[in-house]
Amino acid sequence: MQMPSGRLSPPSAVTVDAPARLHLGFIDPNASLGRAFGSVGLTIDGHGTRITARLAEATRVEGAGSAAQTARIERYLEQLHAAYGGPPVAIEVNETPRAHTGLGSGTQLALAVGTAYVRVAGRSATTAQIARLLGRGARSGIGIHGFDHGGLMVDGGHGGHPSAGIARLPPLLFRQPFPDAWRVLLVDDTSREGLHGDDERRGLASLGAFPRSLAAHLSHLVLMRILPGVAESDFDAFAKGIGELQHTIGEYFAPVQGGVFSSPAVAHALEAVAAKETAGIGQTSWGPTGFAFLRSPEQAERALALAREASRGMPSIACSIAAGRNRGATWRAVDLQKCGIDAA
């Protein structure tokens, strides 16, 4: 989401809607050809983030789902004010997905807050500039590019070794609209969280080298099966490619996350789907959310029923259906009086 250049005439309040994203797999975690990670991802139309920012007499955060989320937003506001100046800004959290489930909630929250802040403060900044300021995009660029563009994307990873730190946003190599008819079954294990923070860093550091031959195989798989499958709406090619990519990268991360899937219950539900339906199954990021791609809304409903039947007696399992989202984040000015919001 590019901000117009120059100083703006700012609205007094702005609402930003940011889409959730599925991280469908890394291509080369160890930079065997000089570029680390490289990612495939998709933005979806559910489980998004919505925040409202408004000018206020004092900085404050309202409606956050936890003390940790409040503290994170307060830290973002301090960083934004130090970088861009401007008057105090209040943030109201309207909607966020459950954190650390593989839906990119941390990046979307940071970018939504940053985008709203520069709007009401009358400043200009690109999404990449906001992401760098707030420390997002250390490995994957999918959440950042998804915020700008939506759709199915591939980024080119970071130049240099993955331990070298952030140099710049991974370049967007491919972006294609996701077929309208295709659906995604999401299966979440609400009793778990995916690896994050220091645990994630330690987990990555503990893994052995990713074989160059596997990186070459995944590159070939992405270029010659997954991307043509989306471009030509060839569901079978896409689903088979995603399933193979996910299994390969999942085996690499298995020693850290406890298996190809981090949640055995999610794996059980998705395996029940794959046994009856043609589907591309996997886990987004560190999970625990798993997914199954289906070719139609009708097939998605059948898969939903299969997943719920397989997880009967497992109250922590939550299933839902989403479509791909072929646009990025949106923002709109808010009329404070109509919304009943106290600007002070």
CATH architecture of the largest domain: 2-Layer Sandwich
Look at the structure and give the CATH class of the largest domain: Alpha Beta
Order of secondary-structure elements = EEEEEHEHHHEEEEHHHHEEHEEH
CATH third-tier fold name of the largest domain: Ribosomal Protein S5, domain 2
- Beta-strand content estimate: 15-25%
In the predicted model, the low-confidence regions spanning at least 5 consecutive residues are 2-8, 337-344
Number of helices: 10
Number of strands: 14
Main pleated sheet: 5 strands, mixed
How far apart are the termini?
Answer: 28 Å
Widest β-sheet, arrangement of strands: 5-6-4-1-14
* Helix/strand structural class: alpha+beta
Which features characterize this protein?
10 helices, disordered C terminus, alpha+beta, 2 domains, Ribosomal Protein S5, domain 2, disordered N terminus, 344 residues, Alpha-Beta Plaits, globular, five-stranded antiparallel β-sheet
